[in-house]
Amino acid sequence: MTPELMEENARRADTYRAAHPNDTGKTESGGRAAGFSRLAVAGEVDVTHGRILYLEDVSVSFDGFKAINKLSLDIAPGELRCIIGPNGAGKTTMMDIITGKTRPDEGRVFFGSTIDLLRFKEADIAQMGIGRKFQKPTVFEQLTVFENLELALKTNKAVTASMRFKLDSNQSDRLAEVLHTIHLADSVSRQAGYLSHGQKQWLEIGMLLMQDPKLLLLDEPVAGMTDEETERTAELFLSLKGKHSLMVVEHDMSFINTISDIVTVLCDGSVLAQGTLAQVQSDERVIEVYLGR
Ligand SMILES: Nc1ncnc2c1ncn2[C@@H]1O[C@H](COP(=O)(O)OP(=O)(O)O)[C@@H](O)[C@H]1O
Ligand SMILES: [Mg+2]
Predict the structure, then answer these.
(1) DSSP result, 129-197
(2) What count of Cα atoms within 13 Å lies in the side-chain half-sphere of residue 149?
């Protein structure tokens, strides 16, 4: 199916460019975007085939070592997919590939059924609505919770960090909603540096939510959290399910148990098993490489 979709994708981009000869691909804010990524941002991600993310036979090697090896996987719109697997399985590398940080040697990676992610740069992919949360919290410690969320609305944080701008009423509403979602409504004017580790993680998730991503990739979000913070994070993720599609990499099995529908087990760069947590936990191969350690 996908080669045809790739052609369709290219055709649509050409049609768009022919109809909009003056479109240089520049965003209003002066940011950079490919002509077709503007189309992707303006339109909706095409999920009529029931997938928001689709990877097929993806491989990447680092110095001859296959970190990702013929990996195929897809995620439904609104799904909360959990990914588990031993260290070195390729979980983070998979996220690097989806977000354009790492180029695979081969394979196909689609956002919806028409957007070939391998044609885009990391910044364009983020703009299209794929948000990523790295393991360590990266909030602006010297700014307040409010200012961090406000800042997240700007595309280029580094350049515009010192500039003030006013939120419109939609943005204010969203900010209030996000504050509530991430359990930080009571800490709105606190400096982020004084938040607990868990609260910083929530704030960073809130910063991603400000951009209303369609797909959120979260790499070990509860690592280092207290039990209570972990429970609240589970509630948070369950509340995001349906509104966003989520891919969550975690080692914490009780957390996975609380939030998961389908669990994918990665090992040696490809899918070893997939199913409910109970199903994969009783799979001999999974026990051998991961759970039974
Ligand atoms: N940029 C890189 N250069 C070389 N090796 C890498 C690079 N990124 C990841 N690897 C290797 O690829 C394998 C998979 O790593 P990673 O995706 O981080 O696994 P996981 O997140 O599942 O623990 C590991 O063996 C790691 O050392
Ligand atoms: Mg990792």
Answers:
(1) TEEEE-SS----TTSBHHHHHHHTTSS-HHHHTT------HHHHHHHHHHHHHTT-GGGTTSBGGGS-H
(2) 32
Tens-place pLDDT, residues 148-181? 999 988 755 444 554 556 788 888 999 999 999 9
d(CA 192, CA 261): 33
Residue whose CA is at the smallest distance from ligand 1 atom 2: 62
194 Cα: distance to centroid of ligand 2 (angstroms) = 27
Distance 32 CA to ligand 2 centre (A): 29
Nearest atom in ligand 1 to the alpha carbon of residue 90 is 17
Please calculate the CA angle 128-134-136 and round it to the nearest 5 degrees.
150
Q: To test ligand 1's pocket by mutation, which of 59, 60, 61, 62 has the most ligand atoms within 8 angstroms of CB?
A: 62
Threshold 0.70, pTM exceeds? yes
pLDDT in tens, 16-73: 444 444 444 333 333 333 334 444 444 578 998 889 999 999 999 999 999 999 999 9
* Domain boundaries along the sequence of the chain: 2-291
> Contact 90/68 with Cβ under 8 angstroms?
yes
Distance from Cα 69 to the centre of ligand 1, integer Å: 12
CA of 239 to the centre of ligand 1 (A): 31
The angle that helices 197-210 and 169-181 make with each other, rounded to 10 degrees, is 150
Question: For the domain bounded by 2-291, which CATH number is listed?
Answer: 3.40.50.300
On whether the CB atoms of residues 215 and 241 are closer than 8 A, the answer is no
Between the alpha carbon of residue 51 and those of residues 132, 266, 267, the distances in Å are: 19, 20, 23
Cα gap 216→234, rounded to integer Å? 15
